[in-house]
Amino acid sequence: MPNKRHARKMYRDAARQASAGNHRTALTGLARAAAEYRAHLDGRGDDAAARTELADLLALIAASHTDLAAPARAADALTERLGHLRELDAPRRLLAEVELDLAEARLAAGHLLSAATCADNAVRSYDRRDTLAPDSAGFAELAAALARNARILHHASDPDLAVGAADQAARMLLAIPGVGADARRLEYLRGVLGLAVELHSAAGRAAYARSAARLFGTYFPGADPAAEAGSGAEGLTLRAALVAAGRLGVFTDANLVDRLCPDPASHAAPPAISARCDPGLAPVALHAVGPAVESLRGSHAPVAWRMATEIHYLLTAADRQGERNLRLNFRDHGPVWLGMLMALTDTAARRSELASDLARVLADLLERLRSRHAAEGPLVGAAVRFIEAHHRRS
Length: 394
Hints:
Layout (H helix, E strand, L loop, with lengths): L3 H16 L3 H21 L4 H20 L3 H17 L4 H17 L3 H13 L12 H20 L2 H17 L7 H20 L3 H14 L6 H4 L8 H10 L7 H6 L20 H16 L4 H20 L3 H5 L1 H13 L2 H4 L3 H20 L6 H13 L4
Helix pairs in contact: 1-2, 1-3, 2-3, 3-4, 4-5, 5-6, 5-7, 6-7, 6-15, 7-8, 7-9, 8-9, 9-10, 12-15, 14-15, 14-17, 17-19, 17-20, 19-20
């Protein structure tokens, strides 16, 4: 018989172990307490207090796994935590913060595709009307979210999106009164300015790089901005990938390039995946880019990877926003989406964590195809085999 009082005692005892740095011992107690809470909620799903306690416990489990360098396990705990918080109808701000925590855990685990889409969903959830005044809490929260998103994009997405997020985060952080007196905001500022220096320099935007470097030197004298950015993903931008595909004769919609790839140095540069373009453009881009990905998967794998992942990110954002064309015509779009992702399997299979992540993404897409009666044909069978081979828990 599940005992909530016993679960609370185990939780308190384990929390003391965690605070003392005894994370392995703490995790044993936390796992037992979590099992008690889950069993209790199986029979009392309306017990909001117990669900809140379990959500808090899962945050502690995630923190202990992070300290033990087990980010995939931390991500599992944060995924469950997020589910409970949604059941509790938690405030949007808290949900976004936890989703960013999850995105960072996914990134640390090498699950790049999941990290990018998770971070974008978090950033998109902020209400821009709450962030107009630099001295407001909402403004500071969005600035922090964009700073975190910039780092995730740097590793998992288009460098042009990463620099757009870094620049906007820096502008917002610098506008906050007394930013120099807040250690956490200073840490975010240090990271995004270092990232801006690196990405503007790599793209040949010397004036922008110098401007970011001057600001970095003002706030962090003696520090090296190059040490802040760290190594990112393949430096190929979506624009460069589309242009390369055009030169190779497999991509013919030149007008689509500017619509998908706004100027990354503009003040209006998109700071997130879902801000790249109108969601209605996502299925259009899929049918223009999908065949090019298939053509280049073997000969120009980095180009195919950049195009496919960016269009996948756009489609995921559009689907979450309920984009009408994508939803109503999923039987037409879904199989093409699946084929584009399957073109990435050879590249992903070289890294176990990336293959596991792609398998997770494919499993989610197959579920949507089945629910919309579009899961048929040999491609579906190939996806199932890839999932069975690689979709395992870390």
